[in-house]
Amino acid sequence: RDRDYTRWRTFWCMLWQGLNPGASGREVVRQLQALFRLENGPKLSEEDGAYCRAKARLPLSEFPKGLTATARAADQQASPMSQLQGRPLKAIDGSALTLPDTPKNRKAYPPLQCADKPSFPMMRIVVLFSLLSGAIPALAQGSLGVSELSLLGLLLSQLAAGDILLGDRGFGSYPVIALLRYSLGVDFIGRTTRCVDGRRRLKRLAKNDWLILWNRSTTPSPWLSALQWAGLPAQMTLRAVKGRCYQKGFRVCQV
Q1: Do the Cβ atoms of 215 and 197 come closer than 8 Å?
Q2: Long-range pairs, 155-162, Cβ under 8 A, ≥24
Q3: CA–CA dist 168, 172 (Å, integer)
Q4: What does R_g of the chain's alpha carbons equal in angstroms?
Q5: In what order do the strands lie in the sheet with 201-206?
Q6: Cα–Cα–Cα angle for 88, 159, 130, rounded to 5 degrees
Q7: Residue 176: exposed, middle, or buried by beta-carbon count in 10 A (0-12, 13-18, 19+)?
Q8: Is 143 exposed, middle or buried (0-12, 13-18, 19+ CB in 10 A)?
Q9: What is the structure's pLDDT at 143?
Q10: Mean per-residue pLDDT pooled into runs of 10, the chain (255 residues)
Q11: How far is CA 24 from CA 20, 99, 206, in A?
């Protein structure tokens, strides 16, 4: 059956609307009407109901593929980086989003129970960035009951041997660093919540720059399987660098 809102046309309309957050569905229809008048296209109704139904028919499984493809194309067009021997640099970060308050969203993403305050469904996301182009090759989502580390496990297929992953202290843990290094051949740069014991310093490389020894915890990590945990080394030698961040009007922050 011929439709005015074909799959590709609906996708580009939705993309335009996403890049213009203040645009309504009717504004999308008006833009499409203007384009059709220039191209002698069909006459469209001013109502946006057909456009909204066409958006609902789009297959969600195609969007992650499109996200990865666009990020790969952006990296190919970006200038190569010279830092860290030109190895691919990627960053990982997590956040949370408030969703529309619908029964379907509440079931999939239960809200936080706050006394005397309205609660809305919340989604946790972990996003992988390419520092070469700034594009996002992949993201993982879940409810607030799913940890960021568990969502990171869903993105490991997007990493390749030789990559360098940057993350905040939420990812600077022994299981993450060991799994990346010994299972994928990926190095990690980031902060950590673990205290650096001076007695564990193996070698001084320069001022505020050491090689340190980390021991694996006796308690298995909840986001790793028993087989993955057993495959982690009992010890790791890491490089620790300490510095200071200066910002006018604020106390000096030691990192």
Answers
A1: no
A2: 155/92, 155/126, 155/128, 156/184, 158/68, 158/128, 159/90, 159/184, 159/186, 160/88, 160/184, 160/185, 160/186, 161/185, 161/186, 162/87, 162/88, 162/186
A3: 7
A4: 24
A5: 201-206, 209-215, 235-241
A6: 45
A7: buried
A8: middle
A9: 92
A10: 83 92 92 92 88 92 90 93 90 93 90 74 94 94 92 93 94 93 94 74 89 90 89 92 90 88
A11: 9, 18, 58
Residue 249, helix vs strand vs coil: coil
The Cα-based distances of 3 to 43, 60, 78, 213 in angstroms read 12, 20, 38, 64
pTM for the model: 0.82
Task: Quickly list DSSP for 131-181.
Answer: TTT----EEEEEETTS-HHHHHHTTGGG--TT-EEEE-TTT-SHHHHHHII
Contact 39, 31 (CB under 8 A): no
- Tokens 């956040």 belong to which residue? 95
Structure tokens that stand for 103 in this block: 């029964």
Distance from C-alpha of 206 to C-alpha of 204, rounded to nearest angstrom: 6
